[in-house]
Amino acid sequence: MLGSPRSLVAAGDKADACAPSAPKSWGWSRRAAGLAAPLLLLLIPSTAMAQGDAPKIDSGDTAWLLVSTALVMLMTPGLALFYGGMVRAKNVLNTLMQSFIALSVVTVLWIVCGYSLAFAKGSPILGGLQWLGLRGVGQEPYAFYGATVPHELFMAYQLMFAIITPALISGAIADRMKFGSYLLFVTIWSLVVYTPMAHMVWGEGGFLRDLGALDFAGGTVVHITSGVSALVLAIMLGKRKAGFAEDMRPHSLPMTLIGTGLLWFGWFGFNGGSAIGSNGLAASAFVVTHIAAAVAGGVWVAIEWIAYKRPTALGLATGAVAGLVAITPASGFVGPMAAVAIGAGVAVISFFAIRLKSVLKYDDALDVFGVHGVGGAWGALATGIFASKAINPLGADGLLAGGGFALIGKQLAGIGVAIAVAAVGTVLIGLLVKAVLGLRVTGDEEDAGLDLTQHGESGYAGASTGSESPAVVAGMHG
Q1: Which residue has the higher pLDDT, 15 or 80?
Q2: Which residues contact 471 (CB under 8 A, 6 or more apart)?
Q3: Maximum mean pLDDT: which of 2-11, 24-33, 253-262
Q4: Which of 42, 234, 338, 344 is spaced 20 to 30 Å from 324 by Cα?
Q5: Which CA distances in Å does 37 have to 7, 28, 55?
Q6: Please, are residues 131 and 120 in contact by the beta-carbon 8 Å criterion?
Q7: Where are the beta strands (DSSP E) in 162-271?
Q8: In this structure, what DSSP letter does residue 247 have?
Q9: Nearest C-alpha neighbor of 395 from the set 331, 324, 320
Q10: What is the C-alpha separation between 308 and 283, in angstroms, rounded?
C-alpha cells in the first residue's frame, strides 16, 4: 500500500534540501508543485486505500448476477414447455398455467414476507421479520450474502429459485388437480416448506448451514423438497383416469425438447450464478453443470438402447434434466471428473427409480419424484463423496478428497431434514386444501380436459384431444 500523502510530501521536502540551488525563475513552479502535490497524491493511492473499506458494488459481479437472474427466470417457462409437451393435448394449457402462475403468486409472497422469512437473520429454523415488504433491502450490498452486488439483486436472484421450486411439483399432479386448489397449495407450500428449508440451508444462522451441510444451488432446498412433495401429493390425489380408447402418451415431444433446451440454458445461471460473482468458482460451476447434463443424457439413452432396443427423445430429455438436478448441490464443490460420475450415476439411479412406479402403483404423472426427489438426494450425497476444498476453500473435503465420512453424515442430515419437512408439510397442506376446496376435478371434468373445464380455453382449436385414439399405455410416462 502506498504511503500517506503527508509522508510522501515530507520525503520530497527532505530531498529538496540536499539538492543544488535552482534559479529564482523556477521558484513559482516549485511553489505550484508544492500546492498541487497533496491533491495529486490523494488521487494516486485512492484504489489502495479502498482496500478494507465497507462492501462495495463490483460491476462485473453485478452484471453476471443480473444475467443469472434472467436465466433462472427463463427456466420456469422452460419447465412449462417441458411438462406441457408430456401431457395430453386437452390439458396442455392447464399444465403451462401451473408453471406461469407461480411467477405471479410467488413473487408477491416473496416481496411481502417470503424473502425475510428465508434470508433475514432469525432462528436456526426460520428467518426474522426485519425485511418484511423488502424494508431495508436496497441498492447497497449485504455482505453476508454478497459483498459486491446490490442486496436487492441478491433478493431477486433468490426469488427465481422460489418461483420454480413449487412449479416443479405440478408435473406429478398433471391432468387431475383443480386449478384453484393447486394455487392455494402453492401459496401455502411456499411459506410452510420452501422458506424454512431455504433459511436452514442458506440463511444467516440457519441450522443446516451452521452444521456444515453443503448445498451450492438447491439440491435439498429445491429438488428434494419438490420431489418428495410431488410424490405425496400424487398419492393423495390418486391415479389419473384413462378411458379405454384414450391415448396417454405425450402429445408433443418437440415442445418437451424445446423446454429441455431452455432448462439446460437457464441452469447455467442456476448453478453458475450461485457463486454470487463473476469469478473462477462461477466458471467451474458452469462447466460441471454442462458436463453432468451431457453425460446423464447420453447414459440414459444408452440404457434405453440396451433395455428397449430404441433410444428415445423423451429419454434424452429426462436424462439431461436428471443430470442438471444431480449436479446442482455439488456444482460449486466438485471438478469435471466428479461431474462425469455424478451425471452417470443419476442416469442409472433415476431410470430405475422411475420404473418403480409400476411396482408401487403410484401415479407421478411426469416423474417428478424419480428425477428431482431421487436425483436431488443422489446429488446431495455425491457432494459428500466428491467435494474438494481445492475447488472451493469455503466448502469441505468429501470422502474421496481425504475428508472421511464426516461430510457424508452432514449431507445425510440435510437430506433427512428436507424429506421430513416436505413430506409432513405436504400432508398437512394437502388435507387443509382438500377440506376447503377439494383436491381433484370430477370424472366428467377430467374426461373433458382441464383446459376447457378449468380455464374455458383450448390449446389447439379444432384439434383432436387424443381421446379418439386407441389406448396406448406403453411409454416412459404412460
Answers
A1: 80
A2: 242, 243, 244, 245, 246, 247, 248
A3: 253-262
A4: 234
A5: 12, 14, 30
A6: yes
A7: none
A8: -
A9: 331
A10: 38
| Cell numbers describing residue 274 | 450461485
H-helix or E-strand spanning residue 248: none
Residue 7 has pLDDT above 80, yes or no: no
Q: Which CATH architecture has domain 64-455?
A: Orthogonal Bundle (1.10)
Q: What is the pTM of this model?
A: 0.86
Q: Model confidence over 235-278: pLDDT tens digits? A: 999 999 876 567 789 999 999 999 999 999 999 999 999 999 99
Residues of the chain with CATH 1.10.3430.10: 64-455
CA distance 474 to 476: 7
For residue 179, give the C-alpha cell: 386449478
How is residue 79 written as a grid cell? 419447465
Number of H helices, E strands in the chain: 20, 0
C-alpha–C-alpha distance, residues 347 and 353, integer Å = 10
By the 10 Å C-beta count (0-12 exposed, 13-18 middle, 19+ buried), 152 is classed as middle
The answer to whether the CB of 341 falls within 8 A of the CB of 291 is no
Helix, strand or coil, per DSSP, at residue 279: coil
The residue among 343 and 471 whose pLDDT is bigger is: 343
| Residue 440, beta-bridge partner list | 177
- In the chain, what is the greatest distance between 2 CA atoms, to the nearest angstrom? 110
3-class state of residue 392 by DSSP: coil
Residue 5, SS3 per DSSP: helix
pLDDT at 358: 86
* Residue among 161, 368, 163 at smallest CA distance from 276: 161
- Please list the alpha-helical segments (H only) found in 238-394: 253-272, 280-308, 313-327, 336-360, 368, 374-386
Contact status, residue 379 vs residue 219, Cβ threshold 8 Å: yes
Residue 244 is predicted with a pLDDT of 54
What cell does 321 get?
434434466
Would you state the cell numbers that stand for residue 88, as one nine-digit string?
395430453
Cell of 406: 464426516
- Sign for the CA dihedral angle at 396, 399, 405, 411 comes to positive
Mark residue 469 as left, alpha or beta (left: phi above 0; alpha: psi -120 to 50; beta: remaining). Answer: beta
- Under 8 Å CB-to-CB from 432, ≥6 apart: which residues? 188
Give φ, ψ of 40 to 5 degrees: -65, -40
The 10s digit of each residue's pLDDT in 84-137 is: 999 999 999 999 999 999 999 999 999 999 999 999 999 999 999 999 999 999
Phi first, then psi, for residue 146 (nearest 5°) are 175, 100
